[in-house]
Specification:
3 domains; OB fold (Dihydrolipoamide Acetyltransferase, E2P)
Amino acid sequence: MATPPPLETGLVIAGHGRHVWVETPDGRRLICHPRGKKSQTVVGDHVLWQASEDEGTIEKVQPRRNLFYRQDEIRTKSFAANLDQVLILIAAEPEFSESQLARALIAAEAEHIQPIIAVNKSDLAEPFQRAWARMGVYRDMGYTVLPMALKPKGDTTLDTEHHLDVVLAGKTTLVLGPSGSGKSTLINRLIPDAQVLTNAISTALNSGKHTTTSTTLYWVDMAKTTAVIDSPGFQEFGLNHIEPMHLASLMPDIKAHASDCKFYNCSHLHEPGCGVIAALQKISDGYLAPGPREISMNRYKIYSNLFAELSQKRY
């Protein structure tokens, strides 16, 4: 009996359906298929694979540091692993959704991944001032919020390139952003040949136009120490894998007052002796609660809506 080829290591850099595109330590790239009917691999996975003619078979997925999810109308799906940080790109125009932003931040918190918020179009004075003011509550919660001008109009003193270099250097970063945020501009600035690589993957995986909906890892530097992962579909972002009673612990402004609740299993919606409701009442009465993490009515509404959404999904 012939000896099977040895297992080799690789990094999943793209995928479509059951097929994935694996990069080896020496820079080779090849298509690999899962062992069995169901694919368990996602972009960012470190895998062990075995050669089979000009392709390979995934034999094992190495333990992950973390796993990021998205939600469609049917189910929750994992789509990226082993992230150092998530860059959430929003724009001064068009007006961004705080509910979408909150979902991304909660998902990052759940997996202990560092989130960074970047506000694009800082060169648009009035819209940016409004957007930056809305970001005040997130800065107060301790989130890093950066101004950016990816396509500056007129003179601007903002050094976007420097910001990006410092933020991304030496890390694997998932880039998220709704339509109009400038995410494509950002990816093309960081990786000028991104479209060439995408086309090559599309041809190899025979996925054609559908490749635009897939997740792809790009190397930013020649040494391959800095990577960005591009994944479309921000609007489909979901949290159905999170238990509703765990939600408050993933929202820093809610969490800051949850320890003051009378009951350990408080939902922060109606219970007597709730620290969160008490803090909101102080704000509505004109008294600002002590500490930097006050709760805005808008953020509390987002919490309430998400709690109801996640509770319905359990039945």
